[in-house]
Amino acid sequence: MCGIIGYIGEREIVPVLIGGLKRLEYRGYDSAGICVINNGLNVVKKKGKIFELENQPELKEIKGKIGIAHTRWATHGEPNKTNAHPHLDCNKEIAIVHNGIVENYHSLKKLLENEGHKIISNTDSEIIAHLIEKFYSKDLEEAVIKTLKLIKGTFGLAIIHKNENKIIVAKRGSPLIIGIGEGEMFVASDVSAILDYTKKVIYLRDNEIAEITKDNYSIKNLEREKVDGKIHEIQWTINQIEKGNFEHFMLKEIFEQPEAIENILRGRLKKGKIKLSLNLDVGQINKIIIVACGTSWHSGLIGKYLIEEITQIPVEVDYASEFRYRNPIVNENDLVIAISQSGETADTLAALKEAKSKNAKTIGIVNVVGSTITQDVDCGIYLHAGPEIGVASTKAFTSQVMTLLLFALYIKQEKGFEIEKKMLEELENLPGKIREILEKSEEIKKIAENFKESSNFLYLGRGLNFPVALEGALKLKEISYIHAEGYPAAEMKHGPIALIDKNMPVVFLATKNNYSNKILSNMQEVKARGGRIVAVVNEKTSEIDKLADYVIEVPETLNYLSPIINVIALQLIAYYIANFKEIDVDKPRNLAKSVTVE
Ligand code: G6P
């Protein structure tokens, strides 16, 4: 949610900043701006996507060695040029870019206005520039610290002053990294912005501030005491953050799922044993609570089925946004698992905080290395799915489900039980089976074309495939703007059945499991009311042929693994429908990849 890049060094600065913004565009794309120091502050801002900023003629004139830039996802104040970052102080000497929310901005704004400051935007962020101005007397770092002590809320911040050869950055609850180069330094809200230039990064921790010059950096806490920053070597490659031959990141990421699953298994499945570096006494776990948002919440629901069946430990799954406020019953014998692709989702972070305040043990299942959640948990499992840039999550979802299955099997193993040979074999076979379904993408595309005019969709599944139905519906909503709902198939008769007519497509997850026959009865009920049926099955039978208008055959696997295979068919349906509707699939309206505000 919003992206920051900053640069200090000898390169031509505008291409570095604009290039970085393009890499960050998936985090927010309603307006953007840059500011470079050169005889004062040179600012260019524009409503819309980065290419619109890039086309501004004034940009060509801008030269300099120090600059910051921002791409926005609006929270306070509509997307327009005035509300776009960077924001300046009254004297146009200080520029800031900010991710996060200043919760007490109303009172701070009033205070500043009473002192004569002219606040011109409707954002909460602008007041940060004015507060720094208020406290500034030739020491930018000191003025920033005084400002940060006043601010309630979250920030990832980069700040420059027209007379100072440095960038100041700070973090609380919103990511900020320093990229270390040779005679140059970068700052960014996420590594993809700077991967073209350096792989050496430091992840700031909450309430840290850093002063960055061309050759150096120094990190301090808000008491101005020096703290160490650990340098990490980024494993992601440039190819991973480029679309390559794919039309969209989302499609590329759907097709990366076989490798993503292989990556999870690599090093964790050895000679029939699951190896996870978790500092956990599994015998002590009384109850597991999974907290997450969006797609990650859906993988958590699948996790509940898997963990309960495999380990017999009770599992609750909570929306992180609900858990954080409902005074949940949690204690030191409970394990709270936070699932998050980005590792930055504000509600999930707050839920973790709540769990920790009640002394629960915490685990993170996260994709982005070094992200805030990974810094906050007792231990964790990385997905290692590579960067996910398409706003609609795909490979992170299947990686999360795979990780939850491994986690369940690990508990079983640690409790002294053998993992069945059949399961171990099928884990090895899974990437190949995913490739088989991906080979059907053209077939699925043809089916999708029939639904580009639809305005509603119903997705039905049972057991482990009920959350898959929810995820299929979410994917469609997010990128095609078609209203879609997921339901347990048996619940259809308690309400949704009233919606069924010839205009209502219903997607059934009807692969082989204990409920297959019951799902066939549900199909009959839909057919009898004229609904259009898409069936995801393992095998075309004459019965399915009679009932379904469209059939997608997917490879058969163990029930525990079926969500991973089945959801890929639904990801492809959603992708192609949205593509037929000519929607920018990677940047669907109103959404952001990583939601770092409440
Ligand atoms: C946003 C994204 C979703 C994602 C959710 C949770 O809403 O658009 O795709 O599932 O956040 O994100 P997380 O990074 O915590 O998994």
Molecular structure report:
The model has no long low-confidence stretch (mean pLDDT 94). A hairpin with a 3-residue loop joins strand 2 and strand 3. The protein has 598 residues and is an alpha/beta fold. It is globular, with a radius of gyration of 25 Å. The chain folds into three domains: 3-234, Aminohydrolase, N-terminal nucleophile (Ntn) domain (Glutamine Phosphoribosylpyrophosphate, subunit 1, domain 1); 243-419, Rossmann fold, CATH 3.40.50; 439-585, Rossmann fold (3-Layer(aba) Sandwich), CATH 3.40.50.10490. 34% of the residues lie in helices and 22% in strands. It has an eight-stranded antiparallel sheet with strand order 3-2-4-1-10-9-11-14. The protein has a six-stranded antiparallel sheet with strand order 5-6-7-8-12-13, with helices on one face. The protein starts with a strand and ends in an 18-residue tail after the last helix. The protein has 18 helices and 26 strands. The site of 6-O-phosphono-alpha-D-glucopyranose has 16 residues, from helix 8.
